[in-house]
Amino acid sequence: MRQLLISLLFLTAGLTDANANNDSLLTALSRTIPLSAGYDTTRIKDINRLKESLYTAGRQPQLVFDQYERIYEAYKTFNYDSAYSYATRLIGIARQMQDGPHLVRAQLKLSFILLSAGLYKETYDSLHSLAARGVPDTLKGEYYTLWGRYYYDLAGYANDQYHSVDYDKKGNQYLDSALDYYPPKSFERIYYSGLRDFKQNSHGGGAPFFERLLASPSLTDHQLALTASTLSAIYLQQEDRDKAIDLLIEATLADIRSSTKETVAIFHLAELLYKKGDLKHAVLCIESAIANAEFYGARQRKIQASSILPLIEGERINGIEAQKSLLIKYAILVTLLVLALILLAWIILRQVQQLKRTQQALSEANEKQQVINHQLEESNKIKEEYIGYFFNMDSEFYNKLDKIKTTIETKLQERRYDDIKFFLNKIDARKEKEELLLSFDKIFLKLFPNFVTEVNALLREEEKIRLKEGELLTTDLRIFALMRMGVADPEKIALILEYSVKTIYSYKSRIKNKAILPGDAFEEKIMQIKTL
Q: Which domain holds residue 403?
């Protein structure tokens, strides 16, 4: 089934609509992401079975080493802490065996997960220690590949036109060395040949290698994810965003099936969907990606999330504000149309009155005056009604959001997506504002988890801020949080928090008076608080 999907992806790319293909795969992705927990449970059960069979007492070190290695392999893309634990155990057993090749093998496994977790200095130290020890030919392919991956990851982390170029060159040199130690038709030989060509050639190099791999029926889910994810970068380089998205979805599905938590595919997918304007699926992907990074312990993935998540959330806020603005415009338009109808009716009535004028001028004039008075009274009444309607509509808007929120959550759980569209224009801006501020608190504390502690460190002991149960940020903290995020204008802060500018100044002054530093120094210290 998996290979059939891959074949259709390439054979029918020119015959089917790209957006329709995206939609089909995104539907599959939306259905599969909630199943991640089930795949993870299966992986954990498999690991537990391996652990249950682990008996070390009285066993030969070689057998213990082999058992530790199997458990490590089950953990290495699933959970960093556990994989690290078993990698160190492998090193301990290898030292006990006094076996040089086994020690190198164990050290390479430690290097792999250090790199996967984004610990670049530790990765360098680990790999560099092997240079003096000597690496057997049977392990040199893996050794040089890890060096190549290390420099490729550094290039991606630096992401500039100076250092990244040199890092990629070093990565290519190591991959050139690694390829000599892989069998000609092995997955590693084909994959890393394609990766090297891609890094050396900015015009689609490496694609034939990856397409050859995707045509193979023997790929594991993890190999499929690696191949599809890398090939997507080539299509993106060629500005074929739809094919890149298709491949990233395939890679993400494969990662879910294999319970791979250390992955970049879903991060890149979230970014492309955001740029495409598909915020619904972008949010789904970035939330899943953050959960994966937290579960595995991948620091560099958390950094990636911090650069993408604010953009997606910003677009969501803009969308809500745009809908609110649209509702107001509709209300104004309806009001103007009614006023125009009233004016037209008044003109017609006046003309009719003029045609009916006869010799009874006085009575007709009185009647006309009464009609005009009635019209003025009616006009005033209509104005009052519409003013009342506007406020009533505004009140209903605030009252209905809770119902709409509950209904949408229910329908999402029931996957009745078509019913949700009915509720989209019923948005409670005030409640949404509170939710947005709460979301801001959560996102901010993810970026600055020590913010409250560091602010308290700047206050006198008796003036430290004590948060209530369930409270993330107080109004005082939120003001300085906004300042730390770069919103320095008190008027903008007042607009965001819906306070007066005078109130904002009052809050700031109150906190500064509690500080152990002068006011300006206090604000400078706030701006120096570091992210995670």
A: 319-423
